[in-house]
């Protein structure tokens, strides 16, 4: 009998995406198991964000590539709103779109309406929605910020608020695109702890990053992407080597391990 635990989060076969007349994802195949956390690493322009956009159905693969299939949680066809509830996406672009004078609580509740902020006249916010928003704010340790304006809190706090916005749906996975960009050391440390606690709570983490130190211990698998293709894929300790990263970034890279974390220098 197949259970939810057997259904892969992602099962992509032969995905090619063409933009500007060239393949920015090139016959890419990737399966991510139901209980796997992964990090995707690659140089600028290698296709990392495009791969996320394929996951969220912002980019579509070329349909007539032989062997193409694209399943998310065992389903090929998704209503876009349902899909985005199952895959909470946190990007810097999303943070930049929080320009209205909304409070943290309003931003979190707006996750229910796939909007950024609440428009009182249009949205019917229920008691249950408010209760869930309070619950996730407490879980993330930012309940005290509920009534603060998004524009008046720090980048690290704002990123946690966006995670809270994604968590109100109790998603299966969190997709984090360069989540620690522009955060200071303390915010990075807090952010990593937050992501670790979410992974421990049973959500899949899909992390896109340039920074090896973002790879929390709960992520055991690393995928290197180059020129729209999988360059290497496997266990973190086998993939994060001087040799692989030097070949990936085309500059001499030294990888160091500090406890359960990695760092790279060039
Ligand atoms: N809509 C588009 N039209 C044309 N080219 C695109 C489009 N989207 C992405 N590309 C190109 O596809 C390539 C991969 O872009 P993508 O944003 O996926 O890279 P990335 O690995 O996320 O890079 P970065 O680390 O700089 O964010 C780049 O060369 C980019 O210019």
Automatic annotation (TrEMBL):
Q: Where is the ABC transporter domain?
A: 10-252
Source organism superkingdom: Archaea
What keywords is this UniProt entry annotated with?
A: ATP-binding, Hydrolase, Nucleotide-binding, Transport
Instruction: Extract the InterPro entries matched here.
Output: AAA+_ATPase, ABC_transporter-like_ATP-bd, ABC_transporter-like_CS, Metal_Ion_Import_ABC, P-loop_NTPase
GO molecular function list:
ATP binding; ATP hydrolysis activity
Identify the Pfam families for this entry: ABC_tran (PF00005)
EC assignment: the record states: 3.6.3.-
Q: What class of enzyme is it?
A: hydrolase
Which N-terminal stretch is annotated as signal sequence?
none
Q: Which Gene3D superfamilies match?
A: P-loop containing nucleotide triphosphate hydrolases (3.40.50.300)
Give the matching PROSITE patterns. ABC_TRANSPORTER_1, ABC_TRANSPORTER_2
Q: Which family does it belong to?
A: Belongs to the ABC transporter superfamily.
Which protein are we looking at? ABC transporter ATP-binding protein YlmA
């Amino acid at each position: 009998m197949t259970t939810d635990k057997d259904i892969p989060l992602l099962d992509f076969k032969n995905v090619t995406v063409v933009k500007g007349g060239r393949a920015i994802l090139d016959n890419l195949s990737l399966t991510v198991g139901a209980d796997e956390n992964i990090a995707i690493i690659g140089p600028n322009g290698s296709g990392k964000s495009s791969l996320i956009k394929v996951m969220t159905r912002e980019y579509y693969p070329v349909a007539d590539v032989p062997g193409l299939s694209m399943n998310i949680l065992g389903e090929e066809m998704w209503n876009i709103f349902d899909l985005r509830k199952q895959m909470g996406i946190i990007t810097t672009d999303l943070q930049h779109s929080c320009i209205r004078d909304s409070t943290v609580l309003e931003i979190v509740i707006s996750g229910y309406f796939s909007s950024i902020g609440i428009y009182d006249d249009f949205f019917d916010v229920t008691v249950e929605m408010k209760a869930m928003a309070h619950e996730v704010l407490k879980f993330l340790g930012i309940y005290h910020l509920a009534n603060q304006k998004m524009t008046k809190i720090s980048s690290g706090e704002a990123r946690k608020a966006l995670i809270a916005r994604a968590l109100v749906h109790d998603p299966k996975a969190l997709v984090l695109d360069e989540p620690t960009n522009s955060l200071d050391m303390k915010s990075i440390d807090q952010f990593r702890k937050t992501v670790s606690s979410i992974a421990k709570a049973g959500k899949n983490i899909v992390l896109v990053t340039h920074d090896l130190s973002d790879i929390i211990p709960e992520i055991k698998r690393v995928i290197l992407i180059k020129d729209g293709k999988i360059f290497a894929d496997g266990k973190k300790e086998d993939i994060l080597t001087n040799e692989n990263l030097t070949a990936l970034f085309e500059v001499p890279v030294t990888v160091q391990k500090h406890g359960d974390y990695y760092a790279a220098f060039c």
